[in-house]
Amino acid sequence: MNQHTLDSLALRSDFRAIARWVEPRSTVLDLGCGDGSLLSLLGEELEVAGYGIEINDAGVLACAQKGVNVIQQNLEDGLRLFEDDSFDFAILSQTLQTIHQTAAILRETVRVGRQCIVSFPNFGYWQHRLSVIQGRMPVSKSLPYQWHNTPNVRVLTIKDFEALAPEVGIEILDRVVLHDGQAIRWGENWRGSLAVYRVKRR
């Protein structure tokens, strides 16, 4: 494992869980791909053929500099560019909480990907709950922004996602809940700060 891979894994704890589920030489669509670090990692380690979608100019430029295929598009406009089951995997890596049309993008994600991976910060984590009880919006490793400059437009918990999934036609295949990169085995909704799911269309 080279230094770039180590740096990427250190940067985002959900990358390790995602990489375990993605099959070698598969096709991947990364929705809200940021600077392309995940696709770069998957391409390097698993030889995937990937495309990213990103709206931010700086993210698109960073993807191009990494040699990552990227389309500049607003996810809120949907995924009409892609037919059903266009990719082996579609990924929403800490993107879901930044989207207004949550149910719509989840339906679109499982439409274009045969399998999908979704990760998000868990607002039910105990320190987040404590911050709210104390009268402040939480700031943490998984929610690193202040209330006034956050890109997040939704907050959700593990239980919230699992309640929504069947309503939008999603079957949950697997789940890992993390805190500081370590898997949480019990009390996940209050002890885990980051949730990662593998799902598909029902």
UniProtKB/TrEMBL annotation:
| Membrane-crossing residue ranges in chain numbering | none
Spell out the InterPro entries in the cross-references.
Methionine_synth_MetW, SAM-dependent_MTases_sf
Query: In which domain of life is the source organism classified?
Result: Bacteria
Pfam families from the entry? MetW
Q: Which NCBIfam families match?
A: metW (TIGR02081)
Protein known as: Methionine biosynthesis protein MetW
